[in-house]
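TICKET: design request
STATUS: open
ATTACHED STRUCTURE:
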């Protein structure tokens, strides 16, 4: 299993989740997505301006974070979906981070591993 963390523009969140869900429907393999609003910056800086000699604003930009845990065989397809949906070729398009997930447990049923997803 892999945990996929996706940082993207807020306006891309709904369509990205929709396309991931369509993939899962095609695979007959429903999963879930956790979302979070975050602030941050990288190469794309925030909005600052100089007004009457005073710097106003913040380097921080609003972003969204999606967290998904999927079986290993779905990772490449999720990366492809997110990249195709979010890529505009500009700073701030986002990032995808992938980590190993040792184990998952569904509290309600006691299922573990891929069955808990």
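STATUS: resolved
RESOLUTION: sequence designed for all positions
ATTACHED SEQUENCE:
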């Amino acid at each position: 299993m892999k945990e996929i963390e996706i940082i993207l523009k807020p306006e891309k969140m709904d369509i990205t989740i929709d396309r991931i869900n369509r993939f899962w429907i095609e695979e007959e393999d429903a999963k879930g997505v956790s979302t979070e609003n975050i602030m941050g910056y990288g190469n794309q800086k925030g909005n600052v301006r100089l007004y009457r000699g005073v710097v106003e604003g913040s380097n921080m930009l609003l972003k969204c974070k999606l967290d998904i845990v999927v079986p290993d065989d779905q990772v490449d397809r999720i990366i492809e979906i997110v990249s195709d949906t979010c890529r505009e070729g500009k700073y701030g398009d986002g990032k995808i981070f992938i980590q190993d997930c040792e184990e998952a447990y569904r509290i309600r049923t006691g299922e573990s591993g891929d069955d808990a997803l």
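CLOSING REMARK: The longest strand covers residues 61-70. The beta strands are 2-8, 34-40, 47-51, 54-58, 61-70, 95-100.
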